[in-house]
Amino acid sequence: MKYWLIVVGLSLSSLCFAQDIHTRFKVYDVKKHRVISLGEIISDMSKADVLFFGEEHNDSIGHFLELEIFRLLNEKYQKQVALSMEMFHTDVQPVVDEYLADAISEKNFVKDSRAWSNYKDYKPLIEYAKLGKLPVIAANAAARYSNAVTKGGLVILQSFPKSSLVFLPPIPIDTASGRYYEKFNNLLGGHSMGSMKVYQTQNFWDATMAWSISRFMKNNKSFKIFQINGRFHSDEKLGTFAQLMRYAPKARILNISAFSDDSFENPDWNKFSDLADYVIITDPKVKRSY
User: Fold this and answer.
1) Out of 14-18, 95-99, 170-174, 209-213, least confident range
2) What is the pTM of this model?
3) Rg (CA), the chain
4) Which of 225, 223, 228, 233 is nearest to 201 (CA)?
5) Angle between the N-to-C axes of helices 193-219 and 143-152, in degrees from 0 to 180, rounded to the nearest 10
6) For 2-268, which CATH class?
7) Helix, strand or coil, per DSSP, at residue 281
């Protein structure tokens, strides 16, 4: 009941399709070659440590599903679940912890955590974690660090004082190559010296999120970690997924790629089979969150 109060009270955008939400998405298991329920992903997590949810940041159904999966994980694994988020930075972890402990107001939390402009889409997750006393990992790199990398490349991180290093992954940071580099340049529209520094920033984000997850794993070995990020960071098991395998080579990881697609009514699942362990297609007719 408390969960549904959160959904009704905090996720008003979902109310317009709450009655038929389960008809607005389809979940495909790439290994089993069939459409499955969310419950089967939750069961599969019995043999995994981390579940990535690669989202489109403005997908209303995707945000609804994130909360639903978080809830199901918590119910299945008895509060041994942590939420990890691209949307908060490592240097605001104390602010996140203070809000979860109900020590500061929501107004101060939103301001001091530098919450994204669409925080309303993630608020139900934070409130659910707060209610259930579940950890939330502020996983991403602060803008001041990523901006520095964009200007000076990854080498610039070596010039930061020791007091900054507590917020940064170990230096040097591996730069992914091959398919990830190809995808990134296709996204930017071609190769250039400028795009190489932007690409290093992308790797910096990936490495920081992966390091944040691995650090939590080392101190909380029995926890299941639910990582939420833009799907470019984890599609094809590249980006943050690949960086996590470097930091925690024994980690058992599953990933979801969730997105809206015009083929929703009759998808060609083979077209998406390289993206993730599970592919979720959401109904493109549902209004985007922004």
Assistant:
1) 14-18
2) 0.93
3) 19
4) 233
5) 140
6) alpha beta
7) strand
